[in-house]
Amino acid sequence: MQTVAVIAIRGSIGAKTRLASRFSEHVRADLAWTMFLHVLGVIRESGIADHLLIVTREPEETRHHTGASPNMTILPQPVEYSGLNAAFDLGRDWAIAHGFETMLILHPDLPLLGTADLQRIAQADATVVLAPDQKGVGTNALRLRLDHPRGHLFTFRFGPDSHRLHLQEAASLALAEVHTPGLARDLDWPEDWDNLPETARDRLLGHCRIPAS
């Protein structure tokens, strides 16, 4: 079964604004790119995806950070298709056009993500697999079978209360949930930063050009 992993990344402009009380704009951008590259590395190491698709409003900057790879595509997100759900709609259209049977959506801000987390998602036998955040409110990962008739029609509901909304959307489908710390722990708010292990905070800040305030 051919699988494409899809990540949408905003880029440096407006990165991680919820952390503005802790970090400067430059540090927030560095944190965002560092976590993004970490997620890419874990996907590659896990071997669960045949291709990586990055949907972004900043394709040139993204290419600067990632380099080129035959198993990776950077898909520009036009301004008329703004927002996270539109990005994943574009990703699904691309995946279907290129013959992929499964798409795995991952957020780029999962600093504790490991290969075992992704293996759990890959092994789940369901049309839709959800990985909620640690509060059970958001959705940090979603796997969708595109070879299922409803796979083309599934409505992505990322945003406020997305876990509940995705559960509703998948109510008539075979559904599974995966709960692991690596998938649950995203980095959006200052308290998320405070709750990270010190080793993880040190690793992230080690890639920042400017010391955190």
End-to-end separation: 47 Å
CATH architecture type: Alpha-Beta Complex
How many domain units? 1
> Mind describing the biggest β-sheet?
7 strands, mixed
Give helix and strand order, one letter per element, not per position.
EHEHEHEHEEHEHHH
Sheet-strand content, in percent, reads 15-25%
**Low-pLDDT regions:** none
Q: What's the number of extended β-strand segments?
A: 7
- The shape, in one word, is globular
Task: Output the keywords.
Spore Coat Polysaccharide Biosynthesis Protein SpsA, Chain A, 213 residues, single chain, alpha/beta, globular, seven-stranded mixed sheet
Give an account of the 3D structure.
The chain starts with a strand and ends in an 8-residue tail after the last helix. Helix 2 (59-66) links the parallel strand 2 (51-56) and strand 3 (72-76). 37% of the residues lie in helices and 18% in strands. It has one domain (3-205): Spore Coat Polysaccharide Biosynthesis Protein SpsA, Chain A. The mean pLDDT is 93. A seven-stranded mixed beta sheet has the order 3-2-1-4-6-5-7, with helices on both faces. The relative contact order is 0.19. Helix 1 (25-46) packs across helix 4. It has 213 residues and is an alpha/beta fold.
